[in-house]
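Hi team, as promised in this morning's meeting, here are the two structures we talked about. I've kept the exact order from the run log so nobody has to guess. The first one is mostly here for context; it's the second one we should focus on when we meet again. Sequence first, then the predicted structure tokens.
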Amino acid sequence: MQGLNTHALNCAVLAGREDKTTRMFDLTQGVFHGTAFCLAPNLFLTAAHVFLQTKAVGPDVCVARLTPGSFHGITVEDVELFDDIDVALLHCPGLAADILPFSFMPLPYLADVFCAGFAFGFQPPVFHMRAFKGHIVNRRELDLLKAGPPGYELSFIAPPGLSGGGRGWWAMETWPPPSLRQYKWGLLMEVHFNTDLQTKVNRLAAENQSEAAEYVQQLVEHYVDHDGWFREKVKSGLAQLDRGEYLTNEEVAERMKRAFPS
């Protein structure tokens, strides 16, 4: 993991109480439940069970970047849960963290992997980052989850505290293809397409002069960015309505008459 700022990539998920006046979260009193990482500006991913356990303790849920000497925690303002695959997306506006790219490329047996988080290392006000390294043992359906998503067995047991954190990998000499043969860190995720959709992805990726996995990642990044933008616009519009900043039907009709005189 040389060259990576693990504290900027991995954030803690805490239960506690936000000061509603200052909007500050007292990290020294937070109860730790798991790890999260940044998918896009202000958008973080963790395990659904981590968020639910944290919310049950609450009353507030915070995502915190615990860089030594510079702690910063933001209360979760919105959440979308995908219980069937144990995923939670958390909206934490204003929390700065390095964005962690992910890939849909399936990993082969014995691929080297690593992860980092706050396993057994959270005793406020002292926090300890811990890292683990091993390899892929098996790729199979995670039958303990309702949707049975594909997942991986690793050669090390992820202890309590790593739930929700990303997994990284080092490229093997012959894998992945040359355009992706570089040092990577990200969420191990496998997505299955039907034959027709896979054919379309391969064709469009070729037209885009990229590998299929790279092309799919670009599409997902674009969707996540647009989704974040759309949510902000909706919230802004609702806020304007709450402030009474809108036009009545009569005012709209009058403006249209002035703009399009008969």
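And here is the second protein, the one for discussion:
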Amino acid sequence: MSRYRSSSNSSRWVLHLVLGICAALIVLAIWNMIPQAKLMDSNDMVMTVNDHTIYPMEFRFYVNRFLENYLPVYGEKTFSQKNLFGGFLSTVSNYVVQNYVMLDWAEENGFTLNDEMKATAREQLDEYKASFDSEEAFQNMLSETGLSEEIYLQFLEMNQVLSAFDDYLYDSELSPYQIKDEELLSLADEYGIYGAEHIFFNMGETDEEKAANKEKCEEALARLKSGENFEDLMNELSEDPGLSTYPNGYTFGPDSNFDPTFYAATQNTEVGQYSEIITSADGYHIIKRIDPNPDDARYLIRVSMSNKEFADRQADAKVVYSPRFGEIEFSDFHISTETAE
């Protein structure tokens, strides 16, 4: 009898389990049939960066800021392509990660929002609002784009903190990256920071102009090799428009906005020596490598050091995306596209 009851109870338990599973599947099926709010229209998190949670309205703010710059260049059709818009979202989300990684770094060094920063951010917001025809026009813009005044203020306040921290990193007296005079040149070389002067001739547009300008450069090189002073020839012949602003040459690093050919030629030339003729996208150069300017080199070394630490921090950041992140589409955003085409 005991076996019979045990078998009967077991059968009932299995039956209840099966019925329970069926009921759960029915509920799930009904739930899936109910239209759910899109991620960007919900109050769910879009992503997290360390301990920071980014909700749809804040993420929408960042996307709109990027679209304001990209749409006039690429147009709506480009962003309507899901794969291209996915790449764009990766750019935006990476920017969000960078902001919050930098904010955490700033807070570790004692940089947090204070009353002065709040007041400055509020003034900036008021100036932005004043650029609209009326308060109503400003509020209409917020309504149409799904944003809020608080989100704008939050962004401006964050910028105040980050700006103060940026000044701290690169300030000659306060920076945590202090560089002694005796180690300046070795550190500059380690980080690829060089100094250079050059005798420059424009490329020219026609083949005749290109040939004539290259010939001028060849003549200048011949005069150098005959013993004439580099600086004298540079001041006499160079067509560099920046010569009057930088009469003692340039200091630059791998992240500076210099032609890669110019950078490589400087790197491959010994200090105090000059190159053969170097052809860049701009024209023809004879480059003399010099020691970098101490103040400029210190700044660029600090930038390189901070960039390395920032990259390490970003790599270590804990970033989690919503499982629905891939659902985000260009149509989720409303922005003026009058100049997009």
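Starting points for discussion:
Residues 1-10, 13-35, 336-341 have pLDDT under 50 and may be disordered.
The first strand starts at residue 47 and ends at 49.
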